[in-house]
Design goal:
Layout lengths: L3 E7 L2 E9 L4 E3 L2 E2 H4 L3 H14 L5 E8 L3 H19 L4 H6 L30
Parallel strand pairs: 3-5
Antiparallel strand pairs: 1-2, 2-5, 3-4
Helix pairs in contact: 2-3
Length: about 130
């Protein structure tokens, strides 16, 4: 098998991954994923598609992660891994979609408007 590329995005986070056959190592920005994501909850999010397909120890994944916060990065990586697994085995798409791993979450921060303190907040109204 050759190297498979995929990309995942969430909020401002972008995950570019390269999947090759191996022993199940996930390297994020030259660090092990358990070091990069110290919280068990985030490690669980990253491993969801691999655990669902029972492929956790079959592929080595190298990741370039940029932008956003730690949770957005974990969810961007989950989407990228799901997309790569579909490239490797198109039959797995049905299972991944049923669990919601193939849908890109389009919600992003709304821009700040001019003359306002934030996107929707207004300055305090004074009658007199």
């Amino acid at each position: 098998m050759e190297v498979v590329n995929a990309i995942g995005r969430r909020k401002a986070a972008i995950a570019r991954i390269f999947v090759s056959e191996g022993k199940g190592q996930i390297t994020i920005n030259k660090k092990d994923y358990q070091v990069y994501f110290p919280l068990d909850q985030l490690q669980y999010i990253v491993m969801q598609p691999l655990n669902l397909l029972e492929l956790a120890d079959r592929y080595d994944i190298k990741v370039n992660l940029t932008g956003g916060g730690i949770k957005g990065q974990a969810e961007a990586l989950r989407l990228a891994i799901s997309r790569a697994m579909v490239q490797i085995d198109p039959e797995s798409k049905k299972v991944l979609r049923a669990n919601g791993f193939m849908t890109r979450d389009p919600r992003v921060v709304e821009r700040k408007k001019p003359g306002r303190p934030k996107a929707r907040k207004r300055f305090q109204f004074s009658k007199r």
